[in-house]
Amino acid sequence: MCSYVLCCKDCILNCVLMLQLMLTMERLILIILVTxxxxxxxxxxxxxxxxxxxxxxxxxxxxxxxxxxxHIVTAVSWSKAQYVxxxxxxxxxxxxxxxPNHLRYVGNYRxxxxxxxxxxxxxxxxxxxxxxxxxxxxxxxxxxxxLSVRELTxxxxxxxxTEGGNVSLTCVxxxxxxxxxxxxxxxxxxxxPVFQAxxxxxxxxxxxxxxxxxxxxxxxxLNVQYAPSNITLSMSPSAVKGSWAxxxxxxxxxxxxxxxxxxxxxxxxxISSGQNHTIADLQPTHSGLYYCEAWxxxxxxxxxxxxxxxxxxxxxxxxxNISISMDPPHVVEGSSVNLTCSSAANPAADNYTWxxxxxxxxxxxxxxxxxQVLSLPSVEASHTGLYxxxxxxxxxxxxxxxxxxxxxxxxxxxxxxxxxxxxxxSVFVTSLLWLWLKxxxxxxxxxxASYEDEVSYSTVTITPRKPSTPHHMDNSCSKxxxxxxxxxxxxxxxxx
Length: 496
What we know:
Shape: rod-shaped
Radius of gyration: 62 Å
Distance between the termini: 236 Å
């Protein structure tokens, strides 16, 4: 019984010891597998390949390393081959003159030794070496990882195109690895690398790596040529008679319209060539519709010459050529008369003022009315005299020449009747004299020559009185006797 119990105790003790040993070995194996990736091969090794990176992009230099069983990695480092004082040396990345975190280790201590470079520049190009330190040794890579830096190259075909022509954008990468490209024009995304050119498509184009837009090509220009448009004709300053004015033509065109490419027309007739046209002394004859014509050797829809909209040049001036008309032209006492003032002005005269002088000169002026027409419904002696009108607009004023208003008194027609009566009497007397002479001549033929009578006679003259001059302002001053016409008759005598 006792020996059986002792045997069982030994078995249990052995089992416990075996279990403890197995657990210890599992822990040791786990540690080796986790910390020492080189236990399977047991060789010192660094493996990586050459890399090509685009300028401005980010790149990862893939790297793997291995080491014998039993070693634990305690330190890793990268270096770059550079010439120092004329000698090629390996310089630690931490000692390079580069921005912080520009070159970063992204590997670990268990076999991954990858290195990344952000915003790659041409100065990053070169040979890189990896080294590591273990608990028992250190290792440096025997061969380098070569990093080459290339660029994107963009092209626009054609680089100069006439509006409406086809354009194609091409982007070429210096690295063989395929990439996705995106296009930009002056910072704005271009949806299609093939398009029909419009004037707004002119600008600078570049391509970039999609998702890494800092990796971009140098920009190239697209020049879109087009015929003149938005042609305008401007005028300065205001158009006032006697002043000057400059007409200036401008347009939107590519290539720009040269000085000789502009022509100025007035009412459809050619005036001059050039972008500017100056009129030194404006006159009303310069008024009219002006437009300019632009040309730059580029056609638009088959049209070579493009015109601006019309500009109306309206030369303004104060009233001139002022005249007075009288209706009726001959005025009788008590009748009505209208004096009308006319003028040439731009803008039209908007104010008329009438002045009169009772004498034959303007020594004393009296304002007698306003408006374009001065009406006298019943003319009296006090209305006679010199009249003038003054016309004005916002630019100034001018006076007309004076007009004399004369008046004929009523009954003045009797003078004409008296004159006609005198003429009739004269004709009658002359007829009687002619008959008497004829009869007398017949009698002489019958009588002896010694008894022939001698007759003496003279010419009859009838002189009507002249009417009073219209320049006298008051006809009432005339004498009553001056209103009679005078008739003078000759005497007839016979001598024997």
